[in-house]
């Protein structure tokens, strides 16, 4: 039986979350923004639009550069 310490699991989960957030804040050119909001503002789209497009399976480039309404 393996006994996992709660703090170890939290650190592992936290690291995965931080990596995911950094990936979300990085555009398709590799530029990292301080927030997802700043990334979206740079490309002129709403954060909700960006997240929705990614959830639909669009690439990061498509999610950021696809014209609104297409």
Q: Notable features of this structure?
A:
single chain, 70 residues, mainly alpha, 0% strand, disordered N terminus
Outline the structure in words:
The protein has 4 helices and no strands. It has 70 residues and is an all-alpha fold.
Mean pLDDT: 78
User: Low-confidence runs (pLDDT<50, min 5 residues)?
Assistant: 1-9
List the total number of helices.
4
Strand content: under 5%
Range of helix content: 55-70%
User: Element order, helices and strands?
Assistant: HHHH
N-to-C span: 53 Å
Summarize the main sheet: none
Could you tell me the number of beta strands?
A: 0
**Could you say which structural class the secondary elements and strand pairing correspond to?**
mainly alpha
The outline comes out as: globular
Question: What is the assembly state of the chains in this entry?
Answer: single chain
CA radius of gyration is 16 Å
List the topology elements.
Elements: H1 6-24, H2 36-43, H3 47-55, H4 60-65
In summary, what is this structure?
This protein is an all-alpha fold. It has four helices and no strands.
């Amino acid at each position: 039986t393996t006994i996992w310490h709660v703090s170890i699991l939290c650190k592992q989960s936290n690291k995965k979350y931080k990596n995911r957030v950094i990936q979300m804040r990085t555009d398709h050119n590799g530029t990292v923004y301080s927030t997802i909001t700043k990334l979206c503002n740079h490309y002129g789209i709403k954060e909700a639009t960006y997240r929705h497009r990614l959830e639909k399976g669009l690439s990061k480039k498509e999610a950021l550069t696809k014209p609104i309404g297409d």
